[in-house]
Amino acid sequence: ETGVTQTPRHLVMGMTNKKSLKCEQHLGHNAMYWYKQSAKKPLELMFVYSLEERVENNSVPSRFSPECPNSSHLFLHLHTLQPEDSALYLCASSQDAVTRSTDTQYFGPGTRLTVL
Amino acid sequence: AQKVTQAQTEISVVEKEDVTLDCVYETRDTTYYLFWYKQPPSGELVFLIRRNSFDEQNEISGRYSWNFQKSTSSFNFTITASQVVDSAVYFCALSEHYSSNTGKLIFGQGTTLQVKP
């Protein structure tokens, strides 16, 4: 595998379900990001991790819970979501989010989430 | 405040036509970076170019070229001799180089380009 991978690619869940999105980067980067892309809206940054430490939480509701066990893996745990949370969730990685904050971010293919 | 505006929501051209996608940005920072990404129907954002605020030279890569003009705060993207495979949503983005920035990319709304055969 190369680049940034995300699983699953599609997910349908009910409002009472608990599910997790997974992201893995094979680029040797130290920073990972979660973005939300809703229809007709710009991409919204949700979370930033640098060396497994969360450095940015962009006022995201607590029903979204990120986890970064190491610099190659990033999870987004979902519980009691709302229909308006339906969106494309994109993961990205870059060399570093703190000392090299303007480095290029490389994105995965995204998980298309539908909340019923 | 920082902002990126892509005024063209949708553009439709016929194959082999040239097309320019506009991007206008706002920032108070003197050091910043501008990016273009392509998002095909598969969903993945594909990195195209990164340009810093001190380098105003235009860049050409194959059929792609970029025109950066600080005087008008614009970073426009031109595709020459467009092809059907160029059909995608294109995003312009801004990253500011201040000490507390933790990788925040500010995206424009995107321009949907449709290239018809």
Question: What would your notes on this structure say?
Answer:
Chain A has strands spanning 4-7, 10-13, 18-25, 31-37, 44-50, 53-57, 64-70, 73-79, 87-94, 106-107, 111-115. Chain A is mainly β and 116 residues long. Chain A is globular, with a radius of gyration of 13 Å. The mean pLDDT of chain A is 91. With 117 residues, chain B is mostly beta strands. Chain B has no helices and twelve strands. In chain B, strands 2, 5, 6, 10, 11 and 12 form a six-stranded mixed sheet that branches. Chain B has a four-stranded antiparallel sheet with strand order 3-9-8-7, with no helix packed on it. Chain B has a two-stranded antiparallel ribbon with strand order 1-4. Chain B is globular. The mean pLDDT of chain B is 93. The chains are: A mainly beta (116), B mainly beta (117). Chains A and B meet through strand 5, strand 9 and strand 10 of A and strand 5, strand 6 and strand 10 of B.
